[in-house]
């Protein structure tokens, strides 16, 4: 299996590790030290060698950081992880609600004037350090760059990954990498820039039509790149580059020069007099320090040139994603039919559920990896938004509960991410009402039409409105961007209060409102959607460009959890159409008991 159920961290290890780190902090003459979740490539998901936050604290969430001071160690987490962090860290750590409590404010309260705060400049971006310095303006707290002190005390730290790189052919990307480099370079030259430093591995993989496996669940490899105004690229990586990949990189009119990862610093230091563009949101502070040290050179800040083009999927990528979702949808239908037959006995555990779902995906003979650790939370575990079952937390799926299953697959033609919440036997009225409100929010996003220029933050409230009417809400975004056989969480597009990027045709996003009752149950419903041009309507404004969402995911909703009396006529009609489409598209891909189950599950409300 791709997923394991090992206990990777326990609260018991935290106190000794914190003590060792504090001793190293004191030896360096610091009054504190910052430990982020990020690696030097600023990814949400990290290789085992970069799981410093989890090693130190026991907290395994995909976002957060720890500020270690002599008498307090604050673990900052957002709303997704408030329940999880309390169960994973020892009492020597203090959970801090972030972003409600900002790091700068917390430090000004906890640290003395004149305090020195150490940090690894490879693990913090230019923008993050700038914001922190701005927030600390006033008190005499000095940020001091340092080597990584966690690495000093982490004596059995795994080696960094150096896995093979693979070619993602143009038949799956829709555009040759040399063409991408050429027109991005033209834009660079028009802006008066000579070089663009690219820090994000997913951007580099997209640009060069390559994929890798340095980070579990994400088909990318560790790398930095520099794109020149000529279209030529300098690629810095320690990943394994074989003859096929080298031939691919030599197949275009542009030149791709390969370097070991360690050569990025001397290469950038040698660009004296050259103007270099960086993205402050993804470039490590250590890189800016190198560039600032050059003679007669200039650094210009702009967004990563690959970010928006990567988000705007080609028609080839969209068609591939459709096929990946139909393949994955058939596996999900087989799984849900099996679950309905087996779960009411009360003999299944959460681990049984995860294993069986991965088995159905593997049966497609197309699965490259799961796209993230499958979440299978029964009863109260469903209220832990990013719950990962292990041998210690594994729980029986009891009749009378709801089971939340959030999962996805990585296929060569697309990345999937789907959540279904399922009733195990008869469940309570509160669960059914909450499910229906969440469903209403998901349907509202699915049905919306909007003018070009609308941002994800403009639409987020539509998904929350039914819950708000009941005095309820959820503490995560409504949707994130998704890559094309790339990272399951992709920026800059999103559906949340923080999503400021206008939505454009070709962007793939998740649509996943939820509701969580701590200690009782969790509900989330998730489909993937793609932004498409909306057809004109009679009476609509002439010349006003409108967009809408095409739903990519086709898997039945649990009709047993829907309180039809709460739905409007239009909501019922959308659900019935969705189920009719699902039966038409998935029906030919399943047979036997799975087809019987699908037919019943897709019956009109």
Plain-language structure description:
- The protein has 605 residues and is α+β, with helices and mostly antiparallel strands.
- It has 3 domains: 11-153, Creatine Amidinohydrolase, Chain A, domain 1; 166-304, Creatinase/prolidase N-terminal domain (Creatine Amidinohydrolase, Chain A, domain 1), CATH 3.40.350.10; 312-572, Alpha-Beta Complex (Creatine Amidinohydrolase), CATH 3.90.230.
- Helices cover 34% and strands 20% of the residues.
- The protein has a 6-stranded mixed sheet. It has a 6-stranded mixed sheet with strand order 12-11-10-8-13-14, with helices on both faces. Strands 21-28-27-24 form a 4-stranded antiparallel sheet.
- Strand 13, helix 12 (285-292) and strand 14 (298-301) form a beta-alpha-beta unit.
- The longest helix is centred in the middle third of the chain and has 28 residues, at 315-342.
- Residues 545-605 form the Peptidase M24 C-terminal domain.
